[in-house]
Amino acid sequence: MLEDFLQFLGFIFLDIIEIMLTLKLFSFVSAIPLRLKNIFYLSLSMVLFQVVFWAFFPDHFILDVVMLAQFLFFALIALY
């Protein structure tokens, strides 16, 4: 139980760090082109979705869901 909770906290902190790095990378969002701005918002929404899903449904959140979400993200970027 404690190990699962610590793993959950680790995922949350990693996602927070990822969000902070993404925001730092695109701190001048108004200066970047619209296409990159859309990719930025898409990546931010994907990370936030994972955090919310981990918070409320940790038992149903498996690695396959993460891999599928990341695959869809990169497929959308490739097709954009």
UniProtKB/TrEMBL annotation:
Q: Where are the transmembrane segments?
A: 6-26, 38-56, 62-79
Q: Which UniProt keywords apply?
A: Kinase, Membrane, Transferase, Transmembrane, Transmembrane helix
What Gene Ontology molecular function terms does this protein carry? Answer: kinase activity
Query: What top-level branch of life does the organism fall under?
Result: Bacteria
- Provide the protein name: Truncated sensory transduction protein kinase
